[in-house]
Amino acid sequence: MLREELLKLQQKEIELIRLKTKKKELETEKEKLEREASKIERKIECAKNKLEEKKNELKELKDFVKYKQERIEELKKQKESARSREEFKKILRAIAKNEDDIIKTRQQITGVETEIEALKDAYSKVKNQFEPDLNRIHERIEELEKEATIYEKKIESILREIEEIKSSVPEEELSKFERLKEKFSGLVFSDISTGACEGCGITYSSVEFKELLSKLKAGQSKCPYCGRFIYNKNER
Ligand SMILES: [Zn+2]
């Protein structure tokens, strides 16, 4: 014999499992979306980094030209005060060399500037292509978080209800119930309202079913096949 509160306890515990499963599903979906989002973010980031790197390269080249120009100015001053023809010639050669460097670097700069334009296009293309997806994913994540919070609250409240029922049932009956739960894979009370035992799946003959229903006492009657306590959902 088992008291009827334990049937309520079983129903609450099954509901708790359902809620936890649902919450877990929401979390799994959220994790999947977060992975997707960071994949997309990496793609956008990658295009941005390539552009930034090129811009840095351009800045270095421009700095190099500036440095060379300053160097030429210095050499020109030195040229004024050259003490020998040899030194004068040497300075002239150095100036020519620096001017050469500037020309070469300017050619490089033109190339890099073209590359920058292409990378800017690529970056905005990637952004335009993926940003709507990214926004959609973030919106869905927010929804999932809200849903998960609702489930969390439901879980908390059902846990309180479970505790309440447990505190109203004597310890030894609770441990008996726990043992039966182990034995019957979580389902100690089995609904037979459909004409079959919810627990073992046996369909009763109509004679047997009528007999079971007529003598049914929740917490006392058992399924003749599996031994679970039976009840009729529609009678409750
Ligand atoms: Zn059964």
Characterization of this structure:
The chain is an all-alpha fold and 236 residues long. Helices cover 77% and strands 3% of the residues. The chain has 4 helices and 2 strands. It has a two-stranded parallel sheet with strand order 1-2. Helix 1 (5-80) packs antiparallel against helix 2. The chain is rod-shaped, with a radius of gyration of 40 Å. The protein starts with a helix and ends in a 5-residue tail after the last strand. Bound molecules: zinc ion. Zinc ion binds at residues 190, 197, 199-200, 202, 223, 225-226, 228.
The SSE order reads HHHEHE
For the record, the CATH architecture of the largest domain stands as Orthogonal Bundle
Number of strands: 2
Distance between the termini: 18 Å
What is the overall shape?
rod-shaped
Instruction: Tell me which ligands are bound.
Output: zinc ion
Q: Give the uncertain stretches in residue-range form.
A: none
CATH class of the largest domain: Mainly Alpha
Nearest-integer average pLDDT: 96
Count of helix runs: 4
Give the domain tally: 2
Q: According to CATH, what is the topology of the largest domain?
A: Helix Hairpins
Helices and strands, with pairings:
Elements: H1 5-80, H2 85-168, H3 171-183, E1 189-191, H4 206-214, E2 229-231
Parallel strand pairs: 1-2
The structure holds zinc ion (ZN).
Zinc ion (ZN) binds at residues 190, 197, 199-200, 202, 223, 225-226, 228.
